[in-house]
Each structure stands twice: as structure tokens, then as C-alpha cells.
Amino acid sequence: MKREIQTFIDAVAADEIQHFTADTTEKEFFADPDGLMSPLATFIREQIGADKLAQAELKLTDTEASVRLELSVINLPLQDTKTIGKIMDTDEEAELNVYAVIETPDINVSGLRIDALAPATTYVDQAAVADTSLHDWLKLQIEKLQAAATNKEETDIKKK
Prior knowledge:
7 strands, two-stranded antiparallel ribbon, 160 residues
């Protein structure tokens, strides 16, 4: 699944993207990340099958966090498409990939982590492998968030 870079940028700017959103709590997310992300992965696969751009988001309603799956030509969040035109040749075609994105102030200094899971066609053709990659990625992000929470508790000054 490919797109000309400029066509991709224009489509994102015009919000010609299929959206899926679900809500959960941090506790529920930590308890069952695979189960909660499964509908998002299914949605992304359906959109790939229909040759459509897509973004699926799981919002953690009790924290400032969200986890997304996005189809893109580069490992930048879809909201940063203006940057794509500055760093890529917009006349070229590029393969679309599925990216996992987590946004929360507790993940790192930038508050954002984005990683490629698989090329779009591979994400469909080798779903089990892609799901394992997503599982491993989610596990790592949850471990980082739990460590950040533990460290915060241990370093915060207790008020008397």
C-alpha cells in the first residue's frame, strides 16, 4: 500500500482519514492492553483492506494519555504532517506503515513515543506477527509508565 507523499499530506490535512476512538481507564488498560487494542487493530486492518488512511485511538480518560495506531509514510504523528513535506521528497511514493503511538507526559521528556509495527500490507498478511509486535510494544510502554509512577512516588516530597 503506497501513497505519493504530497497526496498523503493533502489527505491528512483535509482529514480524509477514517477514525476510530475508544475510551478506557489506566487501570483497565494496564490489566488488558491486548484486549483493549484489538478493536483498534481490527479497524486498521479493515481500512488497509479498503485502501483508506486511518487512525485508531484509545483514550485513557483518567490520565493525560492516549495510545494510537496510525497509517503513515514516516514515523511522525499524523498531526505533524507539515514536517513530512520538509524532510521527504513530496513527489515520491512511499510505503504506508502502521505505527504505534503513545502520548503522555510520563512516557519520556517529549511526551511522545512512536514506533513502526509493520508495513501496511504485512500488518494484514501477517496479523499474528503484527499482533505480537503490538503486544511487546504495549508491554514495554506500560512498564515505562509504571516505573515512572513508582519513581514519582519515591521522589515526591510528602506534604505534612
